[in-house]
Amino acid sequence: MRDFDTIAAIATPPGESGVALIKISGTDAKTIVSEIFKMKTGGIFLNSRPWTMHYGHILEHDSGDVIDEVVVSYFMAPKSYTAEDVVEITCHGGYASTRRILEQVMVMGARPAAPGEFTKRAFLNGRIDLAQAEAVIDIINAKTDQSMRTAMAQSQGRLSREISTIREKLLNMLAFIEVTVDFPEDDLESATAEKVKDNALEIVEKIESLLKTSGEGKIIRDGLRTVIAGKPNVGKSSLLNTLLMENRAIVTDVPGTTRDVIEEYLNLDGIPIILVDTAGIRDTQDIVERIGVDISKQKLVEADLVLFMLDRSRPIDNEDLEIITRLENNRYIVLLNKTDLEDRLDYDHPILQDAIQVSATNGFGISELKKRIKDMFFDGTVKAGEYSVSNDRHKEALMRANESLKDALAALKGNMQLDVVSIDLSTAWSYLGEITGDTLQEDLIDKIFSDFCVGK
Asked: Is 88 annotated among the ligand-binding residues?
């Protein structure tokens, strides 16, 4: 897994910008840049001190022509992002300058970095563990301050410390069992079994406490997929525009105006909402509209939350009832739109008991809607940085570890031999190690880092 050749990549997005950054990491990073960098002071970059910045020009190696005016920074191992020697070249943004500088770095011996390879090297060199490495991509993808704070807490080792503490306790339990098994003449088995039981119960309680944060944590990390559903012309697109505070969707009095799915991000008091406006669900002979209706039905299946809109100026009809039957497996909020018109709904229908009166055009009821969403998913309060588990991989590992611990407790209750109990404890220890990367297979580690962008 360890490949110590020198790598390089453009670390900033492509396109026109004020500045761009080219990152080089590896044993030869400083030597490579010294060959093409002329310092303005006349000094030699190879002799420069670490953690300093130098102004000058990048030259084409063969011709000596100036490519760009740059600032070059040098970070010496192990106090760098990758725990290797790292050189960063800050040049003017744009395609031509960055590409030409990167080409010269390659000519001098570096190779292109693979996606996520800089962070992978930080992990392989022991500067961060796998949970912290995965938090890097969460920081990049964060859509709200809350999701940013949660990702930063993980990148600083919040979850890793808790997992390490649990694994250390499991290791001590395994050592205690081994001593007891190796010295049966001391008659310690009963006392050891009781101690292992107490510790296992304590760890199960801790793991289940972590798992309780996973639902909210996943929403903070990935966003709450919220589908606005209803039959045509009930005000779905108007609600989308009101929530976004911009005219994102076309709104007309003609039923069936929305024929495709519109997705937008909304920051709801720190909760990242993936807001999905769908085509009105109804029977139609229009081929294009029918495709949109089929997509709308699929989006209902995928939704974390459905905002089911009814036009309160019209009685509930068969089209509404068909949508209601599709909500049986969803978490949903019923919105009664068009409060400015005469109310013609029959409130005996059970789905209307907790409905919210709204106006998608003037914003009436939107505050109540936001409060309802927070109450439904976060018990009314979104707590800054308190969601330890936000990654599906981490959740699965915790669940498997918890199952193994419960198997160990069942074995203890059944008065089984301690060396049998130790197998379940060892399995739990291994599952928890997958979170930090201590016991994860190489191909899975490669897959995790392949999802990163090049240059990170």
From this structure: yes
